[in-house]
Amino acid sequence: xxxxxxxxxxxxxxxxxxxxxxxxxxxxxxxxxxxxxxxxxxxxxxxxxxxxxxxxxxxxxxxxxxxxxxxxxxxxxxxxxxxxxxxxxxxxxxxxxxxxxxxxxxxxxxxxxxxxxxxxxxxxxxxxxxxxxxxxxxxxxxxxxxxxxxxxxxxxxxxxxxxxxxxxxxxxxxxxxxxxxxxxxxxxxxxxxxxxxxxxxxxxxxxxxxxxxxxxxxxxxxxxxxxxxxxxxxxxxxxxxxxxxxxxxxxxxxxxxxxxxxxxxxxxxxxxxxxxxxxxxxxxxxxxxxxxxxxxxxxxxxxxxxxxxxxxxxxxxxxxxxxxxxxxxxxxxxxxxxxxxxxxxxxxxxxxxxxxxxxxxxxxxxxxxxxxxxxxxxxxxxxxxxxxxxxxxxxxxxxxxxxxxxxxxxxxxxxxxxxxxx
Length: 422
Known about the structure:
It is built from 14 helices and 19 strands. By secondary structure, the protein is α/β, with parallel strands linked by helices. The protein folds into three domains: 2-108, Rossmann fold (3-Layer(aba) Sandwich), CATH 3.40.50; 115-360, tm_1862 like domain (pyruvate-formate lyase- activating enzyme); 365-418, CATH 2.40.50.140. The strands form six sheets. The chain has a five-stranded mixed beta barrel. A four-stranded parallel sheet has the order 1-2-3-4, with helices on both faces. Strand 15 and strand 16 form a beta hairpin. Helix 10 packs parallel to helix 12 and helix 13 (296-309) packs parallel to helix 14. It is globular.
């Protein structure tokens, strides 16, 4: 979501005649787009702001947008008095106001509506992988999660607006569309005629677009993985056989304290349905270790579910207390050293599963999407249908979509040969 927001901010400033620079010292405006899901990320924001303040030109504007801006609000100006603007994730389209009146301080952390999508200009050239937000906010209110506070409650964008942005992205260079939302598969929009649209409807309509090769979505909530959406994996070949569906913990007791209202059996039943619909589908997940009250037995259950499902790629974190969340006030907070030990054990388990899956891909051929070259320019970086990075020798006649035969694998990436070329 932050990548998309940053693209739109850059497009807005480009449209006003500004140019991007890699040097803070040369910039007239410096914008830090922020995430507050974890405490460490929030702390890094203010450390970085201090470095920017010391490196920028005296009259250059600088400030923060996004979730940390919403979380910090006016206190951001007290922590960093030199800041010029603090704009929440639904307010970054207000940036031109500070350009027009640079002597004023701009604070806007309002969460009302989806005004920013109407206010921001379209990008002239879309990336080959284009992110299309379809809903913002979340109603699930997991006890550890700050998103309902920083992004607000769930609101789905109009179906026609999403399709307009999707068509524009494909016309201007996108080969892959990734639908985004804090609860992306909870998308639900009813138009003026009373017709209700779901994520499956967006996928079905998007798949009709010529010259679009791949569709995916993130991030999914288990109880929103409805049968009509599961059916799309069976019937729509453009939908990648890859799904991120976070489980967070393998312990029923921990899930209950997290306010994650699904059982392990119901979660596994969804996995079984997905694999029946698309036998080659692979699953990734998110995990939190060291949640308040998590016992050794709870943690062992998390290891068990990871081995049982065999997630090919996962994001795992130590529990991080966040303001405005119920879990931050819970008793039995887990000591940092125990959280660190458990995370290392889980990471080792997940990494081994990922390595084993990558090795099964050797000698297989996948239709992959090129995302550009590496820093040396000698190699191209492709993504398989399972979102693995595959490194391929650069050639002048290489194409954006290519059949890549996997020749080697390790935990982090694959090596391959473009067999499309003769």
